[in-house]
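A.,

Following up on our hallway conversation. Structure tokens first:
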């Protein structure tokens, strides 16, 4: 029986038992398994891992574990550029787009209001979420860590918090998105792009007081929902400001 030693850093400890956190963990094995398998045996979804160092050298998920290996496993680095070291994924996603599981509806709405491409339906099954994430190259956001153990998933994140406002702050920090926020760019209802529209084109869809007091309108290109800068608009902007400043 062979033996290797694993140590998991920073928020990867969220997936471990209390007695396993922040210490070397022994792993016994036969043959030479791919290194992804023991990482997930410890309960760490592979999508949460950004860098694996074995005996001081960066390796990919295809590395075959050897007897006596000392393995250091790291999550996403927020302030350091480690691109030259990372060997886990062929290439980064060219755009930041999400697919969100059915338990995170409020998070999806907030991300859309902040201008991010966030597909969501409370009817999505787990296989549908996985399929959308893989085929459309979207980052999967979920509260179900087991979902992220699917081998075909390359980009995903287990949302730790149960509070929607904290979830937003968590996602913005994890993916370094604060500089990309574009409030009111996407429809909160369907995720479509919002663009300006002439009042005359939507006049028959407006309430009498809205027609009288407002003159600047925007409309979702997909579902047709109409937006204007009423009292609700300022309330939404205030809420979004609070979300991005936390």
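Then the amino acids I'd put at each of the 246 positions:
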């Amino acid at each position: 029986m062979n033996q290797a030693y694993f140590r998991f850093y920073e928020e990867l400890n969220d997936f471990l038992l209390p007695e396993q956190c922040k210490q070397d963990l022994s792993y016994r094995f036969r043959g030479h398994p791919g290194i992804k398998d023991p990482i997930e045996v410890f309960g760490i979804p592979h999508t949460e891992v950004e860098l694996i160092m074995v005996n001081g050298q960066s390796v990919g998920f295809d590395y075959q574990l050897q007897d006596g290996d000392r393995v250091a496993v790291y999550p996403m680095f927020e302030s350091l550029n480690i691109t030259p070291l990372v060997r886990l994924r062929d290439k980064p996603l060219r755009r930041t787009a999400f697919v969100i599981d059915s338990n995170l509806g409020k998070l999806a709405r907030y991300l859309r209001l902040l201008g991010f491409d966030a597909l969501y339906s409370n009817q999505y099954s787990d296989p549908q979420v996985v399929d959308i994430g893989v085929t459309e190259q979207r980052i999967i956001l979920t509260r179900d860590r087991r979902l992220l153990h699917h081998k075909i998933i390359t980009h995903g994140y287990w949302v730790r918090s149960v509070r929607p406002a904290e979830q937003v702050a968590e996602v913005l920090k994890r993916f370094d998105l604060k500089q990309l926020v574009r409030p009111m760019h996407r429809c909160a209802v369907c995720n479509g792009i919002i663009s300006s529209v002439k009042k005359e084109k939507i006049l028959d869809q407006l309430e009498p007081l809205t027609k009288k007091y407002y003159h600047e309108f925007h409309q979702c290109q997909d579902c047709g929902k109409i937006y204007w800068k009423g009292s609700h608009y300022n309330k939404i902007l205030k809420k979004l400001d609070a979300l991005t400043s936390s």
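The first helix runs from residue 36 to 41. Curious whether your intuition agrees with the design.

B.
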